[in-house]
Amino acid sequence: MYNEGLLQLENRLLELNEKALNDFGLPSPIRPHNNASDIILIRSYDTNELSVFINENLLKLVRDQRQAFDAIIDSVLNNRGLIFFLDAPGGIGKTFLANLVLAKVRQSGRNGLAVASSGIAATLLNDGKTAHSTFKLPLTVSLEQQSVCSIRKNGPLGKLLQETSLIIWDECTMSDRAHVEAVNRTLKDLRNSDAVMGGVTFVFAGDFRQTLPVVTKGTRADVIRACLKSSHLWSSVASLNFCVNNSILAKEKLFLLTLTAMTLNLTRH
Asked: Where do the DNA helicase Pif1-like DEAD-box helicase domain residues begin and end (predicted)?
């Protein structure tokens, strides 16, 4: 029991800042194989359970979702390292597709990480975490500083990111592009690659019609400048658009989409 408590404490420390208990003068736990790098930052998955989940849900994908699914999986399985953006209003099935893609990648024995810009969005992804906790994003960033994430190359998290085949970042539209660019620089360094995002297949998801980055005392121009679309990385992103199927939309969602479009038209005039 005592050793189990030490293990849980040290696992949490390593996950948060890649430090062990002995870095703070505390006793170290006895680990299986006595290897701290064996800490599981992403859990093992039951491939049979994943297969059942995939078989039950794959046929539920509509045409646009299936095309996006196939494009992402092809990039992962063939190490293409493509960058995608799932573009669709809320409630159209981005999260459903993301979880199905994660299941397929994990079923193949590859690492698939799921992050989101908000804690609520992260809970909707299978084993999702916030982008800040996963990438150790700096609290303050600026486009001029060329910031990077606080991840050691030889640490457990650094090694995990080197071996990861897919990263999904949900609600990316509310993140400052400086954070995304910091992740890009970090992955390039960790994976020793000049490719965008270090060559890992990367899927952004979000809706620019909803929440945008918050810029303290910023103007509209400042907010636009902070958006992912204003980043030099955007030219490498392939948008996967979901067409809205009005026949299956709830009346409330259809009304919300109409209201949003009307609001956008009013603000332009």
From this structure: 61-246
